[in-house]
Amino acid sequence: MKFATKAIHAGQEPDTATGAIMTPIYQTSTYVQAAPGKHKGFEYSRTHNPTRKALENNIAAIEDGKFGLCFGSGMAAEDAVIKLLNPGDEVISTNDLYGGTYRMFTKIFAKYGIKFHFTPMTDVDNVKTLINDRTRMIWVETPTNPMLNIIDIEAVASLAKKKNIWVVVDNTFASPYLQQPLNLGAHIVVHSATKYLGGHSDVVMGALVCKDPALAEKLYFIQNSCGAIPSPHDCFLVLRGIKTLHVRMDRHCENAEKVANYLLTHPEVAKVNWPGLEQHSNHKVARKQMRHFGGMVSFTLKENKTERAVALLSKLKVFSLAESLGGVESLCGHPATMTHASIPKEEREKTGVVDSLIRLSVGIEDAGDLIGDLKQALA
Ligand SMILES: *Cc1c(COP(=O)(O)O)cnc(C)c1O
């Protein structure tokens, strides 16, 4: 089955009790047993829930994986992944990664004796030099936030081959429609389903997908033991969101391309970051591993000042100023004072997060209206 068919049907059968075509919200904590241990596969909803099961199977299918697991947030999903490790284990992570992930690694798990190395993975040789016999995991995020850098997943995964190292890819920005890391050699895919999978800015959720049954068993054990599961109602909402993922992503990408090309021509704009642009430093890698280049665009202004960026943001009307991304509506943000405010200026500027950097989550509104909005705000 092709992607669009899987997105709509995988994991979902008509309800056996009523024939309902949509998976019901099984808002129940427990399930009646005919005799002790004699049940229909469901005993308690932390462990199994039919609505969650449908969503987990659906996400596994659209990632071309075998096993899916859903969590109460993207961070809860990531937390479960790190719990695969033991004290003394080492993780090599990209240095250009979601701020919450960096915070969890350094402020929570470092004190349990797990060592994290951060390195620019746009150059794969940086990973190679950090691998030693304690390396147990390589953590990739691509495209990255907010610079839209691209990491070569296949090249990174080839370094872990035949070694006892798990390659994890945070696929939130691309979505499984644009990029399927398991087919490029990754062992685990991580999602903040809050973003494109949910797609409507109304749910916070996380997901993991893998192919290896032994690895899946470890992750299910952590999910059930630690219990950071999502509600049946939220699972219903994300199942519904995924049914239009491919259609939404096509439009997100189309609109982002138009917005990026418009910004390129504007005399006030200094630099535009979008992996689909020929001049993007890793455009070739993006072309190799992605179907299209995504809905996220960032750009800097010639007048590189916070006040100038903030003034522009306050003039935008169709783009709403907010954290998060991946919903049908367009959002804008100022990383230096919002998502990356906790990073010292010197550090953030090294990765390109300068004072005038603006991040756009390009929605699926009319492209002309989006460009018109940017035009009036830049004027
Ligand atoms: C939002 C986000 C997360 C965290 O997900 P939550 O659902 O907010 O917990 C992780 N990685 C990336 C790339 C994100 O954008």
Can you walk through the features of this model?
This protein is an alpha/beta fold. 37% of the residues lie in helices and 15% in strands. Helix 1 runs antiparallel to helix 2 and helix 2 packs parallel to helix 9. It has a seven-stranded mixed β-sheet with strand order 1-7-6-5-4-2-3, with helices on both faces. The protein has a five-stranded mixed β-sheet with strand order 8-9-12-11-10, with helices on one face. It contains 14 helices and twelve strands. The N and C termini lie far apart (48 Å). The protein has two domains: 240 residues, 3-Layer(aba) Sandwich (Aspartate Aminotransferase, domain 2); 134 residues, Alpha-Beta Complex (Aspartate Aminotransferase, domain 1), CATH 3.90.1150. The model has no long low-confidence stretch (mean pLDDT 96). It is globular, with a radius of gyration of 21 Å. Pyridoxal-5'-phosphate (PLP) binds next to helix 3 and helix 4.
Shape category: globular
Helical percent range?
25-40%
**What's the CATH topology name of the largest domain?**
Aspartate Aminotransferase, domain 2
Distinct small molecules: pyridoxal-5'-phosphate
Structural class estimated from helices and strands:
alpha/beta
Number of strands: 12
Estimate nothing, just give the exact number of structural domains.
2
Average pLDDT over all residues:
96
Summarize the structure.
By secondary structure, the protein is an alpha/beta fold. The protein contains 14 helices and twelve strands.
